[in-house]
Amino acid sequence: METEVEPTLKIVPDHEAMSELAADIVAETLTSDPEAAISLPTGSTPVGMFESLIRRSRAGKIDLTRFHLFCLDEYLGVSVDNPNTLTAWLFRTFVNPAGIPIDHVHTLPVTAEDPAAAAASYEREIVAAGGLRLAVLGIGGNGHIAYNEPGSGADTRTRVLDLTQESIDQAAGYFDGATVPRQAMSVGVATLLDAEKIVLIVSGEGKQEILRAALRDPMSADVPASWLRLRPERVTVIADEAAAGLLDNR
Ligand code: PGA
To answer: 138: Cβ below 6 Å to ligand 1?
Structure first.
């Protein structure tokens, strides 16, 4: 009987081990292609990975000055000068301390007059950079990858979409009392599936159930992360033991 090909699953003891393994994969990509186009996520999950990459860069082990960083998502209509944006967070947490040249950071065109046309041009920007060599992703509590909320199909491209209340509530922590925008621009699921390599990092007990659904339930737009199983040979899931608690070991 033919067995279904599944994403590579690496279960590691804790957040730190997850961060190191994810940083290893970013480092390998940079070694094989120093000018690679790479997308990296925001949120609490990747913070340890960013710290590890900064340490490696300061120790002279990796060069972070040549690759192209493609942002995954941003709130619609919000200027990058706004400290609450995902882009501003990424600059504070990674881009500035890592010394990544600003012109190597590709941000979502969320203030464009014609967001649909600008989103299409962001897709072309990725292609012009040679396509994503690596996409590192987190998973939202509702199964989103980037800001592809439930309902996002596997064929979606960079576009504007409505955020769920759950995502708005999650984002409120970053908005310091200010109103969270109700729409975002996100790279699409199909855009992510085109990446040569995809790494999903997942940490903590709070992600147990959504990770189980993403990897074990039938693929569905209800859990956009489940679409990653359409390209199992490209995908590595790195989960800490707490997040992997509901996965049977098959
Ligand atoms: P988190 O966010 O890392 O803060 O849990 C993940 C996400 O929503 O993609």
So the answer is: yes
Q: Is 43's C-beta closer than 6 angstroms to any atom of ligand 1?
A: yes
Q: How many CB atoms lie within 10 A of CB 196?
A: 16
149 labelled catalytic: yes
Helix (H) or strand (E) holding 175: helix 165-175
Work out whether strand 105-106 and strand 183-186 pair parallel, antiparallel, or are unpaired.
unpaired
As to burial, measured by CB atoms within 10 angstroms (0-12 exposed, 13-18 middle, 19+ buried), residue 114 is exposed
**Could you tell me if 94 and 54 are in contact, meaning their C-beta atoms sit under 8 angstroms apart?**
yes
Ligand 1 atom nearest 204 alpha carbon: 5
Per the CB < 8 A criterion, the answer to whether 68 and 183 are in contact is no
- Residue 204 near ligand 1, beta carbon < 6 Å: no
Best mutation site among 40, 45, 180 for ligand 1, i.e. most ligand atoms within 8 A of its Cβ?
45
Give the model confidence (pLDDT) of 185-218 as tens digits.
999 999 999 999 999 999 999 999 999 999 999 9
Which residues contact residue 160 at a Cβ distance below 8 angstroms, ignoring those fewer than 6 apart? 76, 115, 116, 119, 183, 184, 185
Q: What is the DSSP letter of 2?
A: P
217-236 residue pLDDT tens: 999 999 999 999 999 999 99
Instruction: Determine whether 96 is an active site residue.
Output: no
Compute the distance between CA of residue 227 and CA of residue 79 in angstroms, rounded to an integer. Answer: 31
